[in-house]
Design brief:
about 375 residues; alpha/beta; seven-stranded parallel β-sheet; five-stranded parallel β-sheet
């Protein structure tokens, strides 16, 4: 019965692509853009996606991949696949891309000049496709150097509204030693899947253990502390009680030496970790191995494995000298520049000399 319900829901989604006014309008308007917005001799990358799985997580995969290639200097072109193109009109994550210069072609045959192809199809690559990246949705890790694991990026809202990379003074003294900001709603951020599948503490369990070592300061206003120089050993800003405006989120992270990088709802890796790295806040986390290039304990993060080691790690962070913190922060900055700066993933993805590569979208969900 459950499978029948899922099948019915999937069929309804397909019908909406053709009948929903918003979907139809987005598809029509995008097709009309053609290749008119491309600058002379601008390098092209064509996205040819027919599987709606690329729209998972609200379209965050899709947005982050396209946006990063734009940042790497490519003009994005999309094939007119209704299943994935028409949702630009209804996806809050993808719709910001409509403000960018982009192109749409009916088929790959229209592209007469050399280009890069990113596709979830298996058809032989056209002759003009100089390099081909084939997206795969199964949950598995890379098995050889030609397979690349897709990272988690900063939240699409930040990418669309904030100038990145974020600028901060790496040598500045920060008034907050440890910071966490985010939702800690009961039942939502205390899921068994994190314990049973990944063997990790949940967000609420982490905060509970840290609070035993350092009683948290909970600000009554969301932004007043960001603009102050008041010192806090542990500043806890829970969204339910103290929501930080999105436009000040990186400013908040940049006030802290360390960020308590708690997991997401049902998987370890969360975009708040990437944002902490972007703001030079040293992460304390249990899932360092879940990034394509793992973080290293004592080099660019502090790690733990269970409740006892978390308490030990917090004590270590609490007592760390400014000189030790500056070394860690510089390593965080270098890690971000090497792997996470805007456009950097695309450079790493395309620098391989082989004509074809595999991009594993869901590798970060695999327990390790």
């Amino acid at each position: 019965m459950a499978n029948f319900g899922k099948s019915l829901e999937a069929a309804a989604r397909k019908v909406r692509l053709y009948l929903s006014p918003a979907n139809r309008r987005a598809f029509r308007d995008l097709r009309a853009r053609g290749l008119n917005e491309r600058l002379p001799n601008e390098p092209m990358v064509c996205f040819d996606f027919s599987n709606s799985a690329i729209d998972a997580v609200g379209g965050r995969y899709y947005f982050s991949l396209v946006r990063d290639l734009i940042d790497a200097g490519y003009f994005p072109v999309f094939t007119a696949q209704r299943a994935t193109l028409s949702t630009f009109g209804t996806s809050a994550m993808k719709s910001p891309l409509l403000k960018e210069r982009l192109g749409v072609v009916q088929s790959l045959d229209e592209l007469k000049q050399p280009y890069l192809l990113i596709t979830d199809g298996d058809s032989p690559a056209p002759e003009n496709a100089q390099k081909v990246v084939r997206v795969r949705y199964e949950r598995r890790r890379s098995q050889n150097a030609n397979e690349v694991e897709f990272p988690v990026f900063v939240h699409p809202w930040l990418t669309s509204h904030i100038d990145l990379p974020y600028t901060y003074d790496p040598n500045a003294t920060r008034p907050v030693r440890l910071f966490f900001g985010g939702n800690t709603e009961e039942r939502k951020y205390d899921q068994d899947v994190l314990r049973e599948l990944y063997g990790m503490l949940t967000r609420r369990e982490m905060i509970e253990q840290v609070s035993l070592i350092i009683p948290p300061h909970r600000p009554s206003q969301s932004t007043s502390w960001i603009d102050s120089t008041a010192a806090h050993p542990f500043l806890l800003c829970e969204t339910q009680h103290c929501k930080i405006p999105q436009e000040r989120w990186l400013d908040a992270l940049a006030k802290a030496d360390f960020f308590l990088a708690c997991p997401g709802v049902g998987m370890p890796l969360c975009h708040n970790l990437i944002e902490a790295l972007a703001a030079g806040s040293i992460p304390i986390l249990q899932y360092a191995a879940y990034l394509p290039c793992p973080l290293q304990d004592g080099i660019n993060c502090l790690t733990f494995t269970d409740e006892e080691s978390l308490r030990t790690t917090i004590k270590k962070a609490k007592m760390m000298s400014q000189e030790e913190i500056l070394i860690l922060r510089e390593n965080v900055r270098q890690y971000h520049d090497d792997f996470l700066a805007p456009g950097r993933f695309s450079q790493l993805l395309l620098e391989n000399k082989d004509r074809e590569r595999i991009l594993l979208i869901n590798a970060y969900r695999v327990p390790r």
